[in-house]
Design brief:
Length: 394
């Protein structure tokens, strides 16, 4: 009986990991060849739009961000830029004010508020916006010139509630964190592209996300949401999200392990909270494809360190019950050598791509465990702060 239970645990843990890494991407790719949502778009459709840029201590990048936004290939009379300074302690506000006055920018508005966090900063921007289409973009994210034309044309289709773009790290591939992030980013974007084709794309990022303002309105104002929640709310309101692959936003990747860990912890803790908050989207009968998406690329990865431990310990139990002691010795030797190898990796300055991937995956599993600990301890990341090394400007 115990052997059967251990075998079930062993097979289940391996199956879930393989489903998330290989099975779901292949499944969604095949499904996208069979089912295709039909969307309308009009290249000449250019709605008015409010571009909101939440900021906290972005003195180093805000000038380049404003220049990047003003250079977008879109009629200047059809968009406004709203910069929300969330209680910056540097000269972010002063820098924006000087740029506005010097260049006499009538379509640039700056709002200053006490330190309340990114969600509240976005909410303030939306509250002070004039137009029905909202774009949110981070201060350290730089946009391609045609990003507004390519994304906003989709709002001609009344079914479309939100549009996201590709995103890309300007990486330093010498570090495992940035190299691993690049591979993970490509893996996710393959999935997003195919999810969009069948109408179950939910992910939106602060790099660039566009949506209809009415979808986040409520009687007492507007919802206060994190990046990913906008896409989920759009689904709940009965609209679709579209993933536009012809455009992208870019950020500089973090340059050190400390910033990477802090960045990932904040993201993972918030992801756990968002899943809990939007648990009704896990109704497999009402939202079958959305359920499958969240389960496969959000929930399973969050459980991955526990699944790995389940494989190890159930494997040990199976070996003991089968009296295969020599296999147990081999397993312990393998685990010991793996630990030594990981410690050795930390001492190497130059690492090949395979070693970088192994180190990245190991680091991610550790960060996930830390994130669960912080979640259960009630850790809050309301008052976000961009990692300093991600503000690199060349």
């Amino acid at each position: 009986m115990i052997l059967q239970i251990l075998l079930i645990i062993f097979v289940m843990c391996i199956s879930l990991l393989l489903w998330s890494i290989i099975g779901y991407p292949l499944f969604i790719w095949v499904l996208s060849k069979i089912i295709k949502e039909k969307y309308e778009y009009d290249d000449n459709y250019q709605p008015e739009v409010s571009i909101i840029i939440p900021c906290y201590n972005e003195e180093k990048v805000i000038k380049k961000k404003i220049e990047n936004t003003l250079q977008l290939d879109y009629p200047k009379t059809k968009y406004e830029i709203i910069i929300v300074d969330d209680g910056s302690e540097d000269k972010t506000y002063e820098t924006v004010r000087k740029i506005k006055e010097k260049n006499k920018l009538k379509n640039l508005k700056i709002i200053r508020q006490e330190r309340e966090g990114k969600s509240k900063a976005i909410k303030s921007g939306i509250k002070n916006s004039r137009y029905d289409i909202i774009v949110i973009t981070d201060a350290n994210a730089f946009l391609e010139k045609n990003i507004l034309k390519a994304s906003l044309r989709h709002f001609k289709d009344k079914k479309i509630g939100g549009v996201g773009s590709r995103y890309s790290y300007i990486t330093n591939e010498k570090t495992p964190e940035s190299f691993g992030s690049k591979i993970h980013q490509d893996y996710l974007q393959f999935i997003y592209k195919n999810e969009s084709k069948i109408g179950c794309f939910t992910n939106s990022y602060g790099w660039f996300q566009a949506f209809r303002k009415k979808l986040i309105a409520r009687k007492e104002g507007y919802f206060s949401l994190s990046d990913w929640e906008f896409g989920l709310l759009i689904i709940k309101k009965g609209y679709k999200n579209f993933y536009e692959t012809s455009i992208k936003a870019e950020k500089y990747s973090v340059k050190n392990k400390e910033d990477f860990i802090l960045q990932k912890k904040r993201t993972l803790v918030e992801t756990i909270k968002i899943i809990r908050k939007n648990i009704r989207l896990m109704n497999i009968l009402k939202y079958p494809l959305v359920f499958l998406s969240i389960f496969s690329i959000k929930i399973i990865p969050l459980l991955s360190p526990f699944l790995v431990l389940g494989i190890i310990f159930s494997g040990i139990g199976i070996i003991i019950l089968l009296n295969k002691i020599f296999l147990l010795i081999i397993l312990f030797e393998f685990l010991l050598l793996s630990l030594i190898f990981i410690l050795y990796l930390e001492t190497k300055k130059k690492k090949n791509k395979i070693i970088s991937i192994i180190e990245f995956l190991t680091l991610i599993e550790v960060i996930i465990l830390i994130s669960w600990k912080e979640y259960f301890k009630g850790k809050e990341y309301i008052k976000w702060k961009t990692a300093e090394s991600a503000r690199a400007i060349k």
